[in-house]
Amino acid sequence: MPVPPTQPVLAMDGVVVRFGGVVALDGVHLEVDPGEVLGVIGPNGAGKTTLFNVACGFVPPTEGRLSFEGADVTGWQPHHLVDHGVARSLQGLGLFDRLSVVDNVLVGGDRHAKKGFLSSLLATPAATRDEAALRERAMEVLERLDIGHRAEETVGSLPYPLRKRVALARALVSEPRLLLLDEPAAGLSESEMSELGDIISGLAGEMSVMLVEHHMDLVMRVCHRLTVLDFGRVIATGSPDQVRNDPAVLEAYLGAAVEETPTKEPNGA
Ligand SMILES: Nc1ncnc2c1ncn2[C@@H]1O[C@H](COP(=O)(O)OP(=O)(O)OP(=O)(O)O)[C@@H](O)[C@H]1O
Ligand SMILES: [Mg+2]
Question: 142 versus 133: which is more confidently predicted?
């Protein structure tokens, strides 16, 4: 009997997104396999953010299908996707500045709780047990991200790179099967970016990750495969090495790089 192919965790099939007359995505096919880190790259305006928003459920495809673990989830609301195991960490971190680190993480964790975080405030016995278990898991995630010792501090008092880690912890505490990251390296120093790379590599295997990111060195280091967008279309998919040497990719980036290079004044005259 033939071995059944591995079912992708996330798949997009012929996804088109139009904003009025603008075609932001134009027939995109993409698959995120179990346990892999898939990078999505492309020049400015290529459609990366739109693709991320389709994966989260923020933007419904104008045409085409989105599936999660084989089930058709096209047009699902973001919170339904979260309930089924899709977590995301957005650029706008959406943290509660006056709450402690651990309380911010708890907000992300009610996917598995019998009662939600808010009803746990009513402190019924079942909710209290749930909350204790959840708090334990939140602390484990914080330890893993090396911020366990800051758990009781208010989020508003932390520097930006640590707030980003809290946002990541909040996404992880729901034990997602797919983690969606939108430019997680934005605003990080080289060494913080390198630590982030280690964290992402450490998550692979336990879950699938889709990483939308500008920073090539990070993407090349942590991604198993890359999907490259240009003008809303997939122009290449493959390993980092395949993509790095793909003529269509070089052309897309070179074109963009040439536009961004400041023109030099000729010396003397
Ligand atoms: N809400 C919107 N309404 C109209 N046009 C939009 C909207 N969102 C995106 N677009 C357009 O769709 C195209 C793709 O945009 P998108 O933001 O997805 O690209 P991107 O790859 O994320 O770019 P960047 O690298 O600059 O972040 C662009 O032409 C953009 O102007
Ligand atoms: Mg973008």
Answer: 142
- Mean pLDDT on 206-211: 96
**CATH homologous superfamily for the domain 1-85+176-260:** P-loop containing nucleotide triphosphate hydrolases (3.40.50.300)
Query: Which residues line ion ligand 2, judged by CB < 5 Å?
Result: 48-49
Closest C-alpha to ligand 1, atom 28: 45
| Domain extents in the chain | 1-85+176-260, 95-175
Q: What is the pLDDT of residue 120?
A: 54
Cα of 60 from ligand 1 centre, angstroms: 15
Number of the ligand closest to the Cα of 91: 2
Distance 268 CA to ligand 2 centre (A): 40
- Counting ligands in written order, the one closest to the CA of 43 is 1
One DSSP character per residue, the chain reads -PPPPPPPSEEEEEEEEEETTEEEEEEEEEEE-TT-EEEEE-STTSSHHHHHHHHHTSS--SEEEEEETTEE-TT--HHHHHHTTEEEE-SS----TTSBHHHHHHHTTTTT-SS-HHHHTT--HHHHHHHHHHHHHHHHHHHHTT-GGGTTSBGGGS-HHHHHHHHHHHHHTT--SEEEEESTTTT--HHHHHHHHHHHHHHBTTBEEEEE-S-HHHHHHH-SEEEEEETTEEEEEE-HHHHHT-HHHHHHHHHHHHHHSPPPPPS--
Pocket of ligand 1, beta carbon within 6 A: 19, 22, 24, 42, 44-50
User: Which of the four pLDDT bands, split at 50, 70 and 90, describes residue 268?
Assistant: very low
**Interval between CA 258 and ligand 2 midpoint (Å):** 20
**pLDDT class of 253 with cuts at 50, 70, 90:** confident
